[in-house]
Amino acid sequence: MIKMNTNNEFTEIFKNIFTSSELKNYYRSLVMIHHPDRGGDTLKMQELNDAYFRFLKLLDGKEEKGQDDKYHKYSFNETYEKELSEKIYKFFSYSVGQCVKLYVAGTWLWALGETKPIKDKLKADGWRWSHKKEAWYFHAEPYRKFGKKEYTLYDIANMYGLSELRRSVTKGIN
Q1: The domain 1-76: what is its CATH number?
Q2: Domain ranges in the chain?
Q3: What is the pTM of this model?
């Protein structure tokens, strides 16, 4: 169990989470409940963000078993984490209907489906179109490709895992 100095309801919830992927998934579901643009309280959202980033920092350097059954070391990058969280929230604020889905694969976001109605918003927000994969993607860090092999989304999912992020969540905290 992780010990924290600052105590709020989110600290109590997060202290029983031991991997960055679990923490990120739970944080994203809580953001959809507590964000002020979705009717949540600003103070509660600040407490959530504070607890989330403190716990991510504690997980820096910790080895975790990935979806590929190999152990990987988590490296905390606060700038990247904040930008990724912002992109996820923005995506859900301008995507409409069930025809567009958002996935996380490693440190990449992928938007698939009927994205034409929101393509200008995606483009303006820094997303890029992958013609070969027929999907929009976002990656905050500079990307340098090693080798000439082309990967399909199926290949990427097998290497890094692919998790769908959903707009609707069950309320866990009031």
Answers
A1: 1.10.287
A2: 1-76, 95-174
A3: 0.63
